[in-house]
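Review form for a predicted model. The reviewer records the input and the model, then writes brief findings.
Reviewer: anonymous (R2)
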Amino acid sequence: MGPPDPKGRFEEIYEAHYPDLLAYVRRRTDSPDDAADALAETFTTAWRRMRDIPDGHDAKLWLYGVARRVLANRRRAETRRSALAVRLRAELTVWAEDLVEDDADGVRQAFMRLRPEDRELLALVSWEGLSGEEIAKVLGCSHGAVRLRLHRARRRLARELQAEGLDMARYGSRAVALVKGGSGA
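Model under review:
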């Protein structure tokens, strides 16, 4: 007789212990979705480690141990995410305060009057720090098309900044040149 059928054994273990494990994780999670995720991860581990699962009643205890570790890992990950969110919130608050002091909301208003395509393009350059070649890959177009679109978007932003009554010299000679440039797109 050969080795036991892993699929058949897994199905037996799953059917025998699913209700107990569901109750176990449900009592230890905040939502049905969290319970479902933890249960799925537990049974995924069981599938990968079929050879490690003991026979009989000990299989249920082994699964409880796996579920316990899955839940602990999720709690640790949530703690890390929460700490990161707190830190980012603090950094963004400082950034937002600096931004408001620097432009009195004029730059933001000028930016928001641009077409969504222009805002996205300028954001990819300024906020994400992507190069023209990288933006071309993101947008699925040629580098030349990105250069042209970016030039036009910058020109439109410069016009919006000027319409906002902001001192264009504050943004550099390039901004002044873009405003003085031809009619463009």
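Findings: The chain has a mean pLDDT of 85.
Further findings: The first helix runs from residue 6 to 26.
Recommendation: see findings above.
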